[in-house]
Structure formats: C-alpha cells, structure tokens
Amino acid sequence: MMFSTYLQLIILCTISTLKTCTSLNLSIIPFDEAFVPLYGSQTITLSNDGKSVQISMNEWSASGSGFVSRYPYNHGLFTASIKLPNNTYSAGVVATFYLQNNELMRDEIDFEFLGHIEGEKWVLQTNVYGNGSIHRGREERYTLPFDPSKDFHYYSIFWNSGRVIFYVDEWPIREVKNVESMGGDFPSKPMYVYGTIWDGSNWATHNGKYRVDLQRGPFVTGYSFIINGCSLDPFDSTPFGCDVVLPSGILSFAERQKMNWYRTWLMTYSYCDDVDRYPGSLPECRVEGPGMQPEFFTRVSG
Ligand SMILES: *[C@@H]1O[C@H](CO)[C@@H](O)[C@H](O)[C@H]1NC(C)=O
Ligand SMILES: *[C@@H]1O[C@H](CO)[C@@H](O)[C@H](O)[C@H]1NC(C)=O
Ligand SMILES: *[C@@H]1O[C@H](CO)[C@@H](O)[C@H](O)[C@H]1NC(C)=O
Prior knowledge:
Blueprint: H1 2-14, H2 18-21, H3 31-34, E1 35-39, E2 44-46, E3 53-57, E4 65-69, E5 73-83, E6 93-100, E7 108-114, E8 123-129, E9 140-143, E10 153-159, E11 163-168, E12 171-177, E13 192-199, E14 219-232, E15 239-240, H4 253-266, E16 267-270, H5 283-288, H6 295-298
C-alpha cells in the first residue's frame, strides 16, 4: 500500500514538476491526526493501524456518516484512496470526497459517486463552486474504466490560485482554470477536506429513479488520505505546515492528451453542453470549451 502510494505520487509529481515535488509528503496521514467525525460517528470505523477509515450507511444510520479535516487548507494537492460500496445494489447512495468552506460565499471542489446498480457503469461527478455560486453548478460526469468497489483507487484534487485539476489514478480528467470570465466563481478561500456517505435518492442514480434500499446495506466506503497543503489555524488563520512546495499544476502536452482522451471517451455529461440549463452556456465554456483549451493546440511542451 505505502509503496504503491509512493509510486503513484511520484508519477503525479513527474508529470507536474519534479523539482518542486521533492518536498511533497508521500505518506498516508493518520486519520485522527487530520480528521474528526462530522456526523453518524457510530458508523465510522478506524483501521487497526489508524491510517484508513470506513464510513457507512445502514438501517440504523439511515443518514449515513462523514468526517471533516481538523484544519482548513489554503491550496494543496489532496489525494484520497477510496473503495466504494460493493453491494449489488447501492442506488441513491452518494459517497464523496470534497473540499469546502462554511463561508456565506461558499467555495467547493467535489468528487461525488452517484450510487450503483450491478451490471451498470459507475458514475463519477465533479463540480466546482466559488464565492457562493451554488446556483451555477459546473457539473461534469464520467464513467470509470474500472470497478471502484473492487479495490482502492486514487482520486486527487490539485488546487492553487490558477487552476483546479481532478485526477483519477494520477490521470488528469478535468482542469478548471481561473479565467477572468469565471469571475468570483473560482474557489479562492481556504477549505476543509470532507468524506461523506449519504442518501441522495432524490437525484443521484438515473436522476432519482432508483432510490436507496437500506435493506441492501450496509453500504461501506473506505478512505485513506495523503494531504499536501498549507493548513491554517481555524481560529486565527495562522498558517502552519506550509513548507510544502506544490507542483505548478501546469499540464504537459502528454498529460493534456491523456485528459482529452478521457474526456472524449468517458465523459457523459458536461454543464458546458447543457443548453437547456444554460442557454448560451457559461462564459468560460464559450471561451474555451470543455477539454479543448487553446493551450492544447499551441503548447508543445510543459
Ligand atoms: C509526513 O506525514 C507523516 C504523517 O502525517 C508525518 O508523520 C511526517 O512527519 C511527515 N513528514 C514530513 C517531512 O512532513
Ligand atoms: C465488500 O466490501 C467490504 C468493505 O470494504 C469488504 O469487507 C468485503 O470483503 C467486500 N466483499 C467482497 C465480496 O469483495
Ligand atoms: C462574491 O460575490 C459577492 C456577492 O455576489 C460580490 O459582491 C463579490 O464581488 C464577489 N467576489 C468576487 C471575488 O467576485
């Protein structure tokens, strides 16, 4: 586990900027060091070595469970190793890994898994909100080229002032650039890290057609984390642990090709293409189009 984690992150670093990556901490962070329970604490189970946690939803804990980081972070590379519920039917059960703050003008960066019915493809959703733009969702959905309930896989969020990049097993799948046309909708304030499992019956699986069936539970999701970010004291915002130098986050030509491959073949929905919802589409879509940023055509090396 540790070794493969190391390898995975080395890859993540190499594809960014090796130079700045040497200061990344590639260890899984002990759960208690980084997180506290948020709700449903009776269904949060720590592993014996303290490095991973299982959270679940069942008949006795119908609203699920979740945890939140002890500290907010201002930028970082956040990697969760996640194994989803392996029940034959987990429709409506939403499992998440996300960053968020509790400000009135909220910022948020999401990975959400939208439940599953055996024989169908899993659906992963990503989303970004900034400065309280909660009525302007920027959802994208994808299928996965593996069964995420069989094994642990890595899901990473890279976030700095210039961009957000989502990775699945170190493969970039989405880049959100802080372009001027997005205005304040780009996440800009320190955020906490969350992992949750909850009942999304009303919308998650086939738009809510298939609901949670608690009798088919318990629905168990496993997590462990590698966090490299600048943490802040939640009370007076004093930074600490900020000696980590993050990669630049600028995708190389090869990475951009990988990302475009993923988006061409595995993306099933983009808010940029949803003309019923956003007639004329949001400004950054008109400028760049999903996955087809101008850089793709002009830049030939990282
Ligand atoms: C890396 O993280 C581990 C787990 O949190 C911690 O024990 C260790 O001190 C960290 N190392 C560095 C160099 O920050
Ligand atoms: C299903 O997942 C649970 C929780 O991760 C695990 O304990 C169990 O062994 C898994 N079952 C199968 C058949 O993989
Ligand atoms: C955030 O939203 C508020 C209210 O809509 C607005 O006044 C403010 O200018 C926005 N901030 C940024 C950075 O865009």
